[in-house]
Amino acid sequence: MNYGRMAIIQQNNKDFVYYLGDVKVDGKNIRFKPFVDSLKIEDAETMNDIMSTESFPLNSKSELTLSNLYYVYDNTNYKEAKGNEVANSIELVNTNGKTVKAEFNASDYEQSKLTDNKTSYKVDCSNIEDGIYYLRVKCKPSGNTFYYVNDMESEEPATLNKSYNEIKIAENEIPTSYSLGDNYPNPFNPTTKISFSLPQKSQIKLKVFDVLGREIQILADGVYEAGKYEVEFNATNLPNGVYFYNFTTGRNSITKKMMLIK
């Protein structure tokens, strides 16, 4: 049995559809994370979490295949979508530190590139480090948006002679400098993601504090290898308002602002 999940992002009287499915690792079918389909999806972060597969092991000799499609549904003027109000892509995420190893198949909803036919892909894993990974659809909408998800299942095709487009994963690129990304989404409710980069192995601390300078939460603290990282801040139990997050390592210190709106 093959498993798939379809994200439907409704915005400006258009339904932006993005599908990920038929995920296999060394011939084993990979399911998606379970979710409660009766719950309303409030934001992009929740949508991204729901549009994630279960985790699976990968190494440089693994065979990873998947299918993907995207289109705008029942839209009388496809050219309106050219501004790409909605952007989707697929991320390959290492569960160790939730680092994004690769991002591919970014959506482009221009009329000439719309299709409702699934395309099959084979991911070249030769530059993959041994580890546990998962795939997720990264949704980046703008403006007033409604989110929906459909699960899909299909029997294995009778023929195994399937053609694949290849996705090449680049070798690890070590960042050239320390950096702290803008949290996304911002404003947020109740969770947001914060990314940072390290050019070398470093002792780091990432913490959140309020407008009075009181420490709210430590998101990361310890020695990290060179690379790119992403952490989540959950403000479920905090009041509305402005918060700051500070990233320090050695002589480097960066502070940015974020807004919680419930």
TrEMBL record:
Taxonomic lineage of this organism? Bacteria, Pseudomonadati, Ignavibacteriota, Ignavibacteria, Ignavibacteriales
InterPro entries membership = Secre_tail
Its recorded name reads T9SS type A sorting domain-containing protein
Which residues does the UniProt record annotate as the domain Secretion system C-terminal sorting? 184-259
